[in-house]
Amino acid sequence: MCSAMVLLCIFVAVLCQVCALPLKNSTEPNEVKMRMKRKYSDEIENWDEITAMDQILIVNSRLRAPRGVTFRDGDIASSYPRSAITCPGNACLWPKSVDGFVYVPYIMSPLYDDMDRITIETGMQDISAGTCVKFVPRTQQGSFLDIQPRYGCWSFLGQTGGSQTLSLQTPGCMWSGVAAHEFMHALGFVHEQSRSDRDHYVTIVWKNIMPDQTHNFRKQATNNLHSPYDYNSVMHYGRYAFSEDGGPTIIPKPDPYIPIGQRDGPSALDLHKINVNLELANDV
Ligand SMILES: [Zn+2]
Question: Signal peptide position in this chain (predicted)?
Answer without folding.
Answer: 1-20
